[in-house]
Amino acid sequence: MACTTVPNAIFKNGNSIPMIGLGTWNSPPGQVAQAVKDAIDIGYRHIDCAHVYQNEHEVGEGIAAKIAEGVVKREDLFVTSKLWNTFHRPDLVEGACRTTLTNLKLDYLDLYLIHWPVGYKEGPELFPMGPDGKTFVFSDADYVDTWPQMEKLVDAGLVRNIGLSNFNTKQVQRVLDIARIAPVTNQIECHPYLHQSKITSFCGANGLIVTAYSPLGSPARPWVKEDDPVLMDDAVVGQLAKKYGKTTAQILIRYQIQLGHVVIPKSVTKERIASNFDVFSFQLSQPDMQQLAALEPTTVTLNNGFQMPVLGLGTYNLLGNNCVEAVKSAIDAGYRHIDTAFLYKNEAEVGQAIREKISDGTIKREDIFVTTKLWNTSHEPSQVLPAFEKSMANLQLDYVDLYLMHTPVGSTANADGSEELTEMDYVATWKAMEHLLSTGRVRSIGVSNFNSEQLIRVIEHSGTTPVVNQVECHVRLNQKKLIKFCKDRDIVITAYSPLYRPGSTLRPSEDPLEPRHPFDDTRVKEIAQRYGKTPAQVLLRYLIDIGTVPIPKSGNPKRIRENLNVFDFALTPEEVVTLDGLQTGERLVRFESGIAHRYYPFNADAMTTQVPTVPLGNGYAMPAIGYGTYLALKGQGLELVKKAIDAGYRHIDTAYLYENEAEVGQAIRDKIAEGVIRREDVFVTTKLWNTHHDPAHVEEAFRRSYNLLDIGYIDLFLIHSPMGQQFAGYEYEDMQPKDADGNLLLSEVDYVETWKVLEKLVTAGWVRSIGLSNFNSEQIERILAVATIRPVNNQIEVNPGYDQRRLIEFCKARGITVTAYGPMGRPHRTTYGNRSALGDPKVIEIGQKYGKTSGQVILRYLIDIGTVPIPYSTNDERIRQNIDVFDFKLTEDEIKYLASFHSERTIQFLPLKNHRYYPFNIDF
Question: Where is the NADP-dependent oxidoreductase domain (predicted)?
């Protein structure tokens, strides 16, 4: 054996696991015991099994035999088993574990996993079926209730480590949120045809080791289809095996180990068990790792059923032989998507490169996806077919996969080579393009540089929805609104200029320290370092993760390869939000020659700006700014909220106390009816008032808010304050009960008991998220100590005059977002005023620097220190201004200056100061 010392992976708890183990799933009965004995003799010290495999008794026999022979001691081995789906109910967990230990003849397990997040009906059948014999019967048990019982197994010494298997990111997060003992691993299927980059990145960021099962592609899986690709027969894997003098299985196992994954290949054949173990005497080079990373079938399905690879090679500005060689290098590197256009004057070179790679056997025609485009000078319907024929003659291919209208702007070519705009309607051009589909020489048609209104016209006036809209898209212009608009209509966004044209800048920076290109931005570089990637790879992964198909252009073979190596990692939601912060809305391609045209696409640019979102601790997201409705007078709320939605707000904050929930709900319903938004587009918060803290009154109080809003569900429901008041009824006039002397009547109800009822609203599906308002750090800790559903938000007063930095950091450390009410410092309440920043000359000067108002500077400050502000205004212009704060960012010195305004609260709840839960008696 080339190597008998197996390296270990180290769990977050300090324990270790051998990087390779013997898998036992689907091993033939009667052969497992011998396989285990052979594996131990060869040097394996890690055995993976499970109750559902129905062979643990054989695994136990093999282990016992080798311990009896003195080959190993129990402590030399690492044995994993798994809790099957029929034992999720908390009272069944320990018994299931003890059964496994009995079968294995062991006193403890090194690792015990929840096999799947899905629970089945409890009983003797491993796969309980319904009357139809086809569908499973599920259990009501929730795996977050199963997990504490897993923890008890550790406490009892039956298990040393616990983990998960087949859990997705949201499911892992739910366990992390409630875990006393965190899971150490997530065992998932992982191989070059299925990289699982999103979940593997998430696990790595949260300290879970990935255990990769089926690393060889599971060729013997019972459900395999005759035409399924066989990973071990893949040409790339075979070439690497030949290069290193190894088997294809050894290449695939080594690949997982170099990714940092624990790997558990399965075999009962002694020779293969030995071969699979012999993977520590060589190392795959980085280019070879990249080749394997590129094997995953990474395509997106177009609305007509065809598949398009999710990353392509752009060829704009690649000319002559440079273009031929670049396309050939790309195909050799694994690209199967090439983008060109008649305008680029390189269709002939692109076609030549593709034909040469078909001729040398690297690809077949059907392996590659080719896009070209109709230029503006051929928009006349009679010119569309001849223009297409010219492109086909240049390419010399039998068909193109995608033909795009390059822009919606028509023109005509003059004799001197200049172009003159025409009034040709792009809808007529589109109808002519539809006829091309019947020729069989183009499989799909789409558009490029179209805005949302133009797409709607095409869809409404034709029989074919474009499959693609190719637009400028990068971290400075992330097009999130247009992406969502297109996704809702099953149109894929292809992102050109995805790397913001390295070396380019739109304008000289006024700040010499400000990066001139996203490659140099600290946020991008930190993420790149975290994953061992280049800034370019991070920016391409960002575009893939937000739902686009990037087409980076390069003529450099090394960069061409690097640009494709983005499928072995995925950004976390938090990292996506971080990169959202680089959005400025600035275009590289303005297409200025078409500005005077009636169909110039960038005048209607509403779809290019979007409020970023902040991830909540439960997987949902909250828009990073909201419209507050406190003080909206009766009769005002309806129109104000409608104006806010029209301005782009997708986060509305209200409360039962405000007496405007009915108007807020009506405004949202009206905007849904108009087609401006869908229900899922808007995030709505309301609050439980103090007089309804008694658990007996919480549900009815909530139902009243729910019915007043009448929008199907509530996104976020908060306890308005920790201070209960005596219940006097559910009507508005009952909200401030007083004694004969005019003093508020207080309640002794513990808000912890109130919280427990809020959790039931979530499990019932009425509310997606729950949180707090006006709670201090000690009160939050009391909630966290009992919570089975954690608060995602604390809404508190935050403004430059009272910036709450310590409480913000406290909440952030616990995964709780902070919503900032009173963000301007209550300028209308002069008697309660703190140090106002609104009229400060320096703040006004900062605003002038960015072309912003002092109010916008203040809101940006609150965002930069980690809050979600919810400004209120009745002024149309201010409503629009308040949301326009995502195209600039304050410097550290500017943030420091705004922090200097910190003085005192404007809202102190003085009538409740004697309440035992008054929150403002401590610093934070």
Answer: 20-295, 312-582, 637-900
